[in-house]
Amino acid sequence: MKWTEKLLKRIGDSIHIILDLMVRLAVLVSKRSLQLLQVPFTISNKFTNFFKDVSRVLGETFTALFICAIGDLIAGILLSGMTNTLEILPGLLVLIPGAIGMRGNIFGALGSRLGSNLHIGTLTPELKKSPVLNQNIISAIILTIIMSIFLAFAAKAFCILLGFESISIVDFTVISVLGGIFSGALLLPATILISIKSYENGWDPDNVTTPLIAASGDLFTIPSILLAVQLLLWIKNGYTETVLFAIFIVIGIMGFIYGIKRGSHLKKIIIHSTPTLFLSSIFGTTAGTILNGSFSAILSSPGILALVPLFSGESGDLVSILGARLSSGLHIGSIESSLRPTEGAMRNFAIIIILAIIIYPLIGILAYLGSLFFGAGSVGLDKMVFISTTAGLMLTPIMLLIAFYLNTFSYRRGLDPDNIVIPLSTSITDPVANTFLVVMVLFTLGAAV
């Protein structure tokens, strides 16, 4: 009987062990199953919370970008109508992207400074006369003249270095400075108005004000250049052109000296902004050389020129929105100044990616409709959307990296993002954007042939 008891005991122990293992296995499988079942709900909740948190941001930014797209479309249509002017004045296309970007950089920074001063109380919405207001306005005027001159010399230098046929340095300077004066006369009140209205209506300057001012720059620059070209052709081959060139050079030198010797606030703006705007102008001129190098291919379909300001402008707006949001996040502590993107930075990346997926096909449609309506030759809706969307989605990850690392490095060095980050990020984006656009134009037109 003893051996029977022992056998039964062993059998019982074995059954107990087996049942215990089965229970543990069942519990483990249940836990893992529950975790797997929770994954879609967790992902869904994260997406729901993300869109709930950023719905206002997406609404504001998309509205601003759409308004900007209309302004950029008008600029693009005007540019597509300049094909004869661009043939008469070779090399002028090198100047145009830099001129467009420079207006947005100078007056975008002005709008950002005015907004900051309104919020901290050093300015009032009535804009009563004050040293801060005066010096901000004077700085925009001085920087417009200085940078217009530098842009003209940079455009001529690039044409010489790359062997492009081009107009003289006198022609470049007269067109650039006159265009800067004409567009600045419109942009200055527009910037002040946008800054006041954004303050009064509680708009987020990161999402609305900066892109609206940049779009105003895009809209006013090309008509101003066209007007400057007409004046140049009227006075060309006479002493007036040379006299204007000399006057502009003297005004530029005297303006810079005045800026660094009067008022601490004015001096700070001029000293901080000038090197950044020099770099921005070089990047902008690089963007122009890329377009000029492919001018014959683009000229075969002038409708493509309608896409150029749209694509460049909206890309600049996207990277400036991201740059402004990252800068604000760094300053209020919601984003860490890490060399690796944290959750806060990734959230902003997602916003820009969503906007890019919507905006780039949309601007392809707008460019097609605009060129069709105004009789510019078009490559067709499908090709226009394909060019815009593909080039835009190729550009988007590069824009994310540009904005993120410029903000991180500038924040660590204590530099003012109003004067540095946004101008540099948009200017670096311009040549990259034009490169991708030209590559896709050549690929698509080549594939079409």
From TrEMBL:
Record's keyword annotation contains Transmembrane helix: yes
UniProt key word Membrane: yes
Subcellular localization, as worded in the UniProt entry: Membrane
Gene Ontology MF annotations: monoatomic cation transmembrane transporter activity
Pfam families: MgtE
InterPro entries: SLC41_membr_dom (IPR006667), SLC41_membr_dom_sf (IPR036739), SLC41A1-3 (IPR045349)
UniProtKB keywords: Ion transport, Magnesium, Membrane, Transmembrane, Transmembrane helix, Transport
Domain SLC41A/MgtE integral membrane, first and last residues per copy: 96-227, 308-438
GO CC terms of this entry: membrane
Recorded topology in the membrane: Multi-pass membrane protein
Cross-referenced SUPFAM superfamilies: MgtE membrane domain-like
Transmembrane segments: 62-82, 88-110, 137-163, 169-196, 208-233, 239-260, 349-373, 385-406
Family: Belongs to the SLC41A transporter family.
Name of the protein described by the UniProt record: Divalent cation transporter mgtE family
Native organism: Methanobacterium formicicum
Lineage: Archaea, Methanobacteriati, Methanobacteriota, Methanomada group, Methanobacteria
